[in-house]
Amino acid sequence: MLQVLELLYYVFRVYSLFWNDFVLKARKSASHAYKLWHQWNKPKYGPLFDLVQRTRALYKYTVRFCRKHEQQVEADENANFLAQKNYNSFWKGVFRSTTPDSVFTYKVGSAEGPTDVCSLWLDHYKTLFNSVSYDRTQMEKLVNSVAHTNNEAVEHVSSRNISTASDAMLNNKAGDCYGLRTEHYKLAGNLYYSGLALCINAMLTHGYIPVDAIYTIICPTVKDKKGDLSSISNYRPIALATIFSKILEHVILDRIYKHLDSS
User: Fold this and answer.
1) Looking at the chain, which terminus has fewer C-beta neighbours within 10 angstroms, N or C?
2) ∠86-88-93 over CA atoms, to 5°?
3) Cβ–Cβ contacts within 10 Å for residue 245, how many?
4) 4 burial class (0-12, 13-18, 19+ CB within 10 angstroms)?
């Protein structure tokens, strides 16, 4: 787990340094070419196919270039700030380049090593997020009391609702445990939205959501990099929920928003 977190931190660092100058333009070109190619039924040859191949290759090349020449590009960026007398950005860049890349430790609390640290976080968050107890029988009675006896009372979700929910979500965010990102859903198309709407309608009708649909990964994140990295209190949990569950939340929020009263 620690190795994965270190890799994610490195990728975030590289992207935050060079994304706007090197990667963003290439990514937009690749995304635009893919949309055109998708609209024309994904041809296997021809000018659109060649355009998708070239833009995708350029995008991947820029990412590899940033990873390979991180120090050189960072030094050039600081030199430009200094030449432009932008001292604030210059010193920020110097501080960023001299700060250690990794802020992770192999010892947290009484645990030492990747396996023991992961077990420690598992026990810690399992206790923290399940600290509120409830009576299962009373909960089942409560669920049955509000369950629909008539399926026609359920307001069905349409593909347009799915499209609106996905458009409301931000790009360039962390992916879920399945490796999916917001961009995958936005570029899926109306046919996928129709299938997703059918799944959500079935869940609303039967009152059941599969566990895999709302599977969430909790990642401990350092609060103070200069503090004690071995202290449990120096970490905050970050939840990486599935993109599907986020779309479902947007759909439900759109339904109940008019019933919410801030007063």
Assistant:
1) C
2) 95
3) 15
4) exposed
User: Mapped to the 3 state alphabet, what secondary structure does 123-191 carry?
Assistant: HHHHHHCCCCCCCHHHHHHHHHHHCCCCHHHCCCCCHHHHHHHHHCCCCCCCCCCCCCCHHHHHCCCHH
Give the position of tokens 């100058």: 21
What pLDDT, on a 0 to 100 scale, did the predictor assign at position 207? 79
User: Between vectors from CA 9 to CA 101 and to CA 213, what angle results, nearest 5°?
Assistant: 165
- Sorted by where each begins, the domain ranges of the chain are 110-263
pLDDT at residue number 151: 61
Q: Contact 51/39 with Cβ under 8 angstroms?
A: no
- CB-CB contact of 82 with 90 (8 Å): yes
Tell me the angle at which helices 159-167 and 243-256 cross, rounded to the nearest 10 degrees. 110
Q: Please give the pLDDT value at position 152.
A: 63
